Amino acid sequence: MLKELVIAIEAYFRAHRFIVRHKLWKWILIPGLLYALLFVTGMWLFWTSSGSFLNWLFELMGIRAWLESMRSEWLNFLFITGSLIFRLILLFFYFSLFKYLFLIVGAPLFAYLSEKTESILEDRDYPFSMPQFLSDVWRGIRLALRNLLWQTVYTVTILLFSLVPVVGWVSPLIAFLVECYYYGFSMLDYSAERHKLSPSQSIAFISGQKGLAIGNGMVFYLLHLLPLVGWVLAPAYAVVAATLSLYHTKDNP
Predict the structure, then answer these.
(1) Which of 6, 12, 79, 197 has the fewest CB atoms inside 10 Å of its own CB, making it the most exposed?
(2) 211 vs 88, higher pLDDT
């Protein structure tokens, strides 16, 4: 798995060189700018609403009144820390919903970009077929919805785990790794579909290469630490990097 993580991370550097060499910028910037706009808008809405939601929840549960009656600095510390962790996991959950919405909307472009990357690598053209293209897009949407369902189940479980004092502090890391895996899964599936793997075969194949999925998703999220530039580049770079990482794995088993 460590080797797969390294391959997935290195694939982003190779993706950059690949994009520059083959002048793929229009396929990077158009979805990237749309993604960045939606990301900024969504994050602002989340941050302004999540604080109000937590205050309402704690008032409803009577936690604030209980803490005031206890007058314990240690309990207040645990409460503040737990609130931050809970809010972080809510952020991951929101990001999941936003991410899958964008994956569904961007499925046609991402499928095309993955196919174009492999056609350049293989030096051959994939004949365009509208029925096949629509089938590929529908498959991507179905898998995105399937992943959203499972990730929601895991996220709710992690949210409950985060409420446990001290041991729940590792829950943001678990939530982050789950996020990385499912995003990377979506990126890798474009290549799996092109090689005629059924959805069930794709799930089994990618589950056996979790490092590639986690590594791809990890760099995607870390790119968000670069304001604007990272937000624009992250989605399409993830598609190209996923295609290159599978190609590299095939050539270097």
Answers:
(1) 6
(2) 211
CA end-to-end distance (rounded Å), the chain: 13
Which are the contacts of 155, defined by CB distance < 8 A and separation ≥ 6?
89, 92, 93, 96, 175, 178
Residue 9 and residue 218: Cα distance in Å, rounded?
8
Structure tokens at 154: 């895991």
Distance of CA 204 to the CA centre of its chain: 19
| Single pTM value for the model | 0.76
What does the alpha-carbon distance between residue 123 and residue 195 come to, in Å, rounded to a whole number?
16
Q: For the chain, what is the HEC assignment?
A: CHHHHHHHHHHHHHHHHHHHHCCCHHHHHHHHHHHHHHHHHHHHHHHHHHHHHHHHHHHHHCHHHHHHHHCCHHHHHHHHHHHHHHHHHHHHHHHHHHHHHHHHHHHHHHHHHHHHHHHHHHCCCCCCCHHHHHHHHHHHHHHHHHHHHHHHHHHHHHHHHHCCCCHHHHHHHHHHHHHHHHHHHHHHHHHHHHCCCCHHHHHHHHHCCHHHHHHHHHHHHHHHHCCCHHHHHHHHHHHHHHHHHHHHHHHCC
Whether 92 has a pLDDT exceeding 90, the answer reads: no
Looking at residue 97, its amino acid is: L
User: Closest by alpha carbon to 222, among 207, 202, 237?
Assistant: 237
Reported confidence tier of residue 201, pLDDT bands at 50, 70, 90: confident
Q: Averaged over 22-37, what is the pLDDT?
A: 85
